[in-house]
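Posted in: Structural Biology > Protein-Ligand Complexes

Title: Requesting predicted complex, iron/sulfur cluster in pocket

I'd be grateful if someone could produce the 3D structure tokens for the following input. Sequence and ligand are given below.
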Amino acid sequence: MTIKSEGNKTQQVKVSASPLTFLQLARETPTKRIADERKIDFKEIYDDSDDTQLANQSSRCLDCGNPYCEWKCPLHNYIPNWLSLVSKDRLDDAAELMYQTNPLPEICGRVCPQDRLCEQACTINTGFGAVTIGMIEKNITDRALAKKWRPNIPTIKANAKRVAIIGAGPAGIACADQLARNGIRAVVYDRYPEIGGLLTFGIPGFKLEKHVMRKRKEFLQDIGVEFKLNTDVGVDITFQEIQETYDSVFLAMGTYKSVKTDLPGFDSGKLINALDYLIGNINHQEQFAMTQFPEINLNGKEVVVLGGGDTAMDCVRTAVRQGAKSVSCIYRRDEDSMPGSPREVQNAKEEGVDFHFLLAPAALNLNDDKSVKSLSVYKTELVINKDTGASKLQQVKDSGFEIKADAVITAFGFKASPANWFNKANVETDKNGLVKMKASENDSLEYSQRTSAHGIYAGGDMVRGADLVVTAIAEGIQAANEIIEDFEELTE
Ligand SMILES: Cc1cc2nc3c(=O)[nH]c(=O)nc-3n(C[C@H](O)[C@H](O)[C@H](O)COP(=O)(O)OP(=O)(O)OC[C@H]3O[C@@H](n4cnc5c(N)ncnc54)[C@H](O)[C@@H]3O)c2cc1C
Ligand code: SF4
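-- Reply #1 --
Done. Output follows.
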């Protein structure tokens, strides 16, 4: 086996796979554009992998016999099997296998927090570095879609059952795809002008360029999925009309109520809401002409972002790209407690974001002309209860100080935003507004996507609370399977 090394670019030579390849071959991610170059545009930051890198990296899979990666992946993707196909240059077969369990592999490969999911669970992660599962998933599917690969699925019959899906985010798309694979007509409604939900109107281009979503849309349309965009259910069409037209309905509407705190100055109208900021920027970049989301340009500003999740990371990195004078992220807990992917925190650090951990906001201070002047903050500490082991966050006494800022973005997360027509449709929600799933009729079913209302199903963030793309996909597939099961029961 010959391995060439060139700075941080190694493995130019294709190696022949053996179960112990990982001992000789280091983990290698595709080249990441250098920070100075990438922070001036909104393009993705990783280059594509070439054939050699794909073959070599996939051949690092140990095929350990107990694929923890597969269990940790919420879709239980057949990871070792498709890695083996890639290592043998059977890229089309690998793409086909990826699609069997995942309707959006090129998206998951880009945005899943692999460092908390499949790659974290990879047997060789400790000591050798995990197989680059996400990057391989992305590259193989990108190539298949570029060649206009389409699965061999039954065509939808004219008299097929019709299912309405409300919401074209990952949950809605996954459900539509699974229905189409089974010859069922899915019509997806969304209030926005493009499909994707938060994949399009939330996650910035440097994590997921928007042409990727457009390519997936062509695929979905080719397999028979219909989209009715710019259609807000409850405004442009009533839910009753939808119920009367379709055999079943899947709700996949996400969670859109931003969490707020009532600290002094926070009700001044001067704080920037994270999602308004991100959508405004995407609207401007992609020229969607959504007048309700104007661009908020923070060029030259001293920006502070409050929060430690994916949304906060997307805001800090967007502000960097807009040319902010400085960008700081304030998080009340320590770095290890950050809910987002460590990979994205690292990317933000490389791009020049200052992180302040164990710091919490106390008040927003304004100048006489009502512009933002500064943020009052205090230090926090984690106190461990000796008896229970539980940790509690508390304020450090006399630790308050001010941070100069002329723009403050809040990214404290999202709460459920149930529609006002749920009651009339008998769709029950819990005390937090999340849609309640029907208790399973036989206790053998672990979970169900059936709501309290007959023929109405739900999934994704509106059921789980703000979570992940891959879990929304899993629930969309599950809902489609239950819809099919219920149709079959009716015809028996
Ligand atoms: C800024 C940001 C960054 C994120 N980054 C990541 C990440 O890197 N990795 C990751 O795994 N997860 C990430 N997430 C979380 C992830 O995007 C969500 O968990 C996922 O998109 C939820 O999917 P969903 O289909 O349930 O809802 P959504 O993606 O929210 O889609 C819901 C869709 O329903 C539509 N809709 C709602 N009401 C109506 C109505 N009445 N009529 C018509 N249409 C309607 C909305 O317009 C929207 O398109 C991020 C979230 C945010 C906010
Ligand atoms: S879907 Fe996500 S968790 Fe599953 S294998 Fe792909 S990147 Fe990993």
